[in-house]
Structure formats: C-alpha cells, structure tokens
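Here comes just one.
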Amino acid sequence: MAPEDVTGKNEAEVWQRLYGQVTKTRRRGRLKAGDKVRLSERVKTFKKGYLPQWTEELFRIQRVIQGPVLMYRRI
C-alpha cells in the first residue's frame, strides 16, 4: 500500500500490517504507593568512590503511573 493510500478509515489496518497486534500489558513495579525511597545522584566522572551515590533526603511515593515506562509520583 502506498503512503498516499492511507486514510483515517484504514489507519488501523496499516498499523496492524506494520507493527502487528498491539498488546496492552500492565507492568508491575517493585514499589507501591506509600513506600519511602531515595533518589540516585548523577555519577560524575571523577567522583570519589567512597561517597554515597544516593540523596540524603527520603521521598514517599504518592502514586504509581502506568504507561510505556513505569513512573512514580512523589510527595
């Protein structure tokens, strides 16, 4: 099928042909709402190895956001 033949009516058929069946699986993360977490700090080139690579501040997860990439909202 040529690109000029694609319309709004047959876009689902074109998608199916190009990418196959779309599966909507929900991913389960290790963390859930209410868990306390620390954030990892960005590793610099010449950072000392004996220093912690995590923030001192604790955060609590407010909710888990499902999507292609699992995200967490913090308080």
